[in-house]
Amino acid sequence: MRRGSVAKRSYRFQVGQVSGLTLFSPHQRLVAQYGQNKSIRKVVVGGEQEMSIGDKVVLLFGSKAVGKTSLVDSMLNYLYDIRKENTFRFTVRKESAPTTEVTEYVINNSILPFSVAIVDTPGVIDEKGYKGTSTIIRQWCEQELASTGQFRLDAISLVLKSDEEELGWPYIHELAEVKRLFGDDLKTNVLPIVTHTEILPQPLAVHALAYANVTFLEYYKINNDGFIPINCARTVTNKTEQNRLFIHGKTSFERYFTDLRGLAEPMIAIIRAPDVSSKANDRDLRNSDLCLR
């Protein structure tokens, strides 16, 4: 039996139903005393697991309502080996609402031989002067350093809707702030995910990234309705389409997590020096700490 198979998920709690599927929350533990900022949380999913050198941390970044939290649910169902014929799905949330805080989901005991942390962030608002997303991402970095004495980020996944023709200036400015925070080094460690997709053709969002001079090697198409059909009824016709989206999404996730595992080095890894205060004075965190890259 595969590691992380649903047959091994002994802790789960029913939270609702959608389109004939029962939704369960897997075992989750909120990390206590993680920090003073109540808008930043760390949640351990799937029980405890020993840390390893292969563990990965991914930050999700995107506009409001592109489906980042739904993407976390889709990842969860892939990582815990849910099959399309199963009559239930896993979800990390009890209700659908806009994300207003940073939540780091540390997903353990999955089909992967390592732990993966997916960091869900508030969506960028298309409003002049908006800095809310980059600000709370910086606060998350500082809180992680203050809490554990170290910080690691392996990749950023830019999450975009398939039909996004261009990235607005608030998005570009916020992405620039995040790049500055991590040392302006976003190259091979950018793994874009395009949501609300059909299997064909190439999404417009890919061109939007290219026009914005965002460097990436691959992109991954995921339609979250293939895993949890929120936006359509589960009729016979739709079920056939959802099965196709599920299979395609599973294939995309196989590529995604293979590529994530294959990253030669993290985007940034920091060990906080003992004599450095928990609040960095410079805009680049790496100027005030011991950076391992």
Total strands: the figure is: 14
Output the CATH topology: Rossmann fold
Radius of gyration: 19 Å
Annotation field: number of helices: 5
Helix content: 25-40%
Could you tell me how far the N terminus lies from the C terminus, measured between alpha carbons in angstroms?
A: 38 Å
Number of domains: 1
| Order of helical and strand elements | EEEEEHEEEHEEHEHEHEE
| Strand adjacency order, main sheet | 3-4-7-8-5-10-11-12
Give the rounded overall mean pLDDT: 87
Structural class: alpha/beta
Residue runs with pLDDT of under 50 for 5 or more positions: 6-10, 278-283
Oligomer: single chain
InterPro entries: GTP-bd, P-loop_NTPase
Domain G: 58-142
Protein name: G domain-containing protein
GO molecular function: GTP binding
Can you give a write-up of this model?
By secondary structure, the chain is α/β, with parallel strands linked by helices. The chain has one domain: P-loop containing nucleotide triphosphate hydrolases (Rossmann fold, 3-Layer(aba) Sandwich). The chain is built from 5 helices and 14 strands. The chain has an 8-stranded mixed beta sheet with strand order 3-4-7-8-5-10-11-12. The protein has a 3-stranded mixed beta sheet with strand order 1-2-6. Strand 10, helix 3 and strand 11 form a beta-alpha-beta unit. Helix 2 runs parallel beside helix 3. The chain is globular, with a radius of gyration of 19 Å. 39% of the residues are buried. About 4% of the residues have low confidence.
